[in-house]
Every structure is written in C-alpha cells, then in structure tokens.
Amino acid sequence: MAGLRGSTLAVLGAGKIGSAIIRATRPCVSKVIGTGRRPETLRAVEALGAEATRSNREAVERADVVIVSVKPHHFAAVAREIRGSVEGKTVVSVVAGVKLSTLRAALPGAEVYRAMPNINAVIARSTTALAPHDARSTPGGGLAEELFRCLGSVYWIPEEWMDAWTALVGSGPAFFAEIVDALVLGAVMVGMPRELAYAALLDAMKATAEHLESRSVHPLELRDEVTTPAGTTIHGLIKLESEGVKAGLMKVVEASTRRGRELGALIDAAVRRNLTP
Ligand SMILES: NC(=O)c1ccc[n+]([C@@H]2O[C@H](COP(=O)([O-])OP(=O)(O)OC[C@H]3O[C@@H](n4cnc5c(N)ncnc54)[C@H](OP(=O)(O)O)[C@@H]3O)[C@@H](O)[C@H]2O)c1
Fold first, then answer.
1. pLDDT at position 1 over 70
2. Is residue 117 located within the same domain as residue 214?
3. pLDDT above 70: residue 136
4. Residue 75, by phi and psi: left (phi above 0), alpha (psi -120 to 50) or beta?
5. Stated pTM of the model
6. 63 in the Ramachandran plot: left (φ > 0), alpha (ψ -120 to 50) or beta?
7. Does residue 176 lie in a domain region?
8. Would you say 65 and 6 are in contact if contact means Cβ atoms under 8 Å apart?
C-alpha cells in the first residue's frame, strides 16, 4: 500500500465529527468514502468532495483505513455489518466509551485503535488522543497517527487515561467557552463593548497559551510576573480564590472524568450485549 496519500479512507457515520474528519482528511488521502442512512447525510458527504454510500460493508471493502464515527448505540449494528471485511485493515473508532477489548472482539483481524478527537476538528485543529490497538505494541507512527495529524495534533495515551482526556480535552472547549463568556460579561459590566472585549480576550488567551508553551515554565511563574504588590491582578486573584474558582475548575475535570467512566461502562456493556445478533 502506498502510505496514507495513496489510501482510500472510509468514514462510517458522516455526522458532526465524521464530516469534520472527511473535510480535514480529504487532502491527505487519495479517496474518501462516507456513509450514513439518510439522503441528507449522503448529500452532505458528496458536497465535501467524497463518495457517499449507505453500505458500510461496501465502503470498508474499498478502503485501506476505516474510521467508525457513529453514535455508541449504532456501533454494534455497524460492527456486525463490517466484521467480515476488516481483516488486516486499520480501523479507528472515535465512538465514546467503547473499549479496545470490545473493538477487538467486534472486529476480529483488524488493527483497531481508539481515538478521541475534539470539536476543533471542524477547523482542522483537533487535539486527538490515540490509544494503541495492543497494550504490548509500541505506539507512534502508522496510518492511524498520520490520518489524525491531518486533523490537528496527536497524543498517544494508554487507554486508562481516555476518560480524563475526554473531560479535559474533549469537553474542554465547552469549559473554555464558558470561561470566555464569563470574562467577557465581566468586561461588559464595567463598560467595555462586548465585541471588543471578545476579540481582545481571545487574542490574549491565544498569546498566553503560546507564551506558556514557548517558555516551558510553570503557569504560576507567569502569574507572579504579572502580579504587582497592591496592584490590579492581586485584587482579582483574591476574588478568584474567595469565590473558589480554582477548586471549582479542578472539580469540573474530576466530575466530568467520573461521568465518562460511568457512561463508558454502560455503553461498553450495551455494545457487548448487542454484538451477537
Ligand atoms: N461531536 C464531537 O465533537 C465528537 C468528538 C469525539 C468523539 N465523538 C464521537 O463520535 C461519534 C459521533 O458523534 P457525532 O456528534 O458526530 O454524532 P452525529 O452527528 O449524530 O453523527 C453520527 C452519524 O452516524 C450516522 N449513522 C447512524 N447509523 C448509521 C449506520 N448504521 N450506518 C452509517 N451511518 C450511520 C448518522 O447518519 P444518518 O442520520 O444519515 O444515519 C449520523 O450522521 C459518537 O460516538 C461520539 O462519541 C464525537
């Protein structure tokens, strides 16, 4: 096979994340085939410059690499449809909660990976976790990684961290959006126009992220550099502490991770029950 560029990719379930994957990976592969059940889904796939079919089996038979991006409750039906056609193929599941052991049982003979991209895939800036198909294998490289690099950045993680990843990086954009909204409202409250506050805040947040990355110091070093004695920052920081914002954010990640574990256990058990027709 001629590497990723010469490959055909099948995206099973071209919904929100599936169509973002199609759009971002289209320039990286030779051909993309997207699947769905409704005519609107198939038309949307064609509008992205990919081939569309209702048949997951046909898509898999013609593909070198397969991404499964249906909702968890549709996973078992899709797995039953394609299980005879995946031998020797790379199959990456982005389906939340479905464990690698279940993927292996559902798709014997395939090289299976579990991935967790985030919504920033829509602008080809996803931060994606990949868990290796086999705990003994050395992660890194391969078609799965190449493919998700077209969508943004890739981190290899052990499967046991997938729920924490989902909380921090998967749900992260929703938490960041809330924080942005709160800070903008604060600026509006003291008289700044909303549009200006929004644009300036996004700019400052992006620059702060780049600043932290470039200096590789602990975030609190940067905080202390900004914090002049008796100045404006320390007056804001005491409010942050007294309102419990920091502890609150820690608990956000903890609660979201716990919910991911609960849901994952339910989803995985349901998928296993439904794997046998
Ligand atoms: N959205 C995110 O940001 C995100 C991020 C990471 C992971 N995920 C995971 O990605 C999966 C999809 O999420 P989503 O938000 O993209 O959901 P979604 O928009 O509902 O997309 C699912 C798609 O699957 C299609 N589908 C359902 N049954 C099918 C079948 N038997 N054969 C082929 N296609 C079928 C549906 O198309 P029809 O309606 O035409 O059938 C729909 O377009 C979930 O498991 C989720 O955990 C999502």
1. no
2. no
3. no
4. alpha
5. 0.91
6. beta
7. yes
8. no
- Round the average pLDDT of the chain to a whole number and report it: 94
**Could you tell me the distance, in angstroms and rounded to a whole number, from the CA of residue 74 to the centre of ligand 1?**
8
Establish if 233 belongs to a structural domain: yes
Q: Say yes or no: CB of residue 14 within 6 Å of ligand 1.
A: yes
Assess whether the C-beta atom of 56 lies below 6 angstroms from ligand 1. Answer: yes
Residues 82 and 44 in one domain: yes
Distance in Å from the first CA to the final CA of the chain: 34
Verify whether ligand 1 is closer than 6 Å to residue 136 (CB atom): no
Domain that holds residue 14: 8-158
The CATH number of the domain holding residue 13 is 3.40.50.720
CB 144 within 8 A of CB 124: no
Does ligand 1 have an atom closer than 6 angstroms to the CB of 48?
no
Structure-model confidence comparison of residues 38 and 133, the more confident one: 38
Structural domains of the chain, count: 2
> Is residue 210 in some structural domain?
yes
Question: Per-residue pLDDT averaged across 10-36, rounded?
Answer: 96
Round to whole Å and give the CA distance between 232 and 206. 22
The CATH number linked to 197 is: 1.10.3730.10
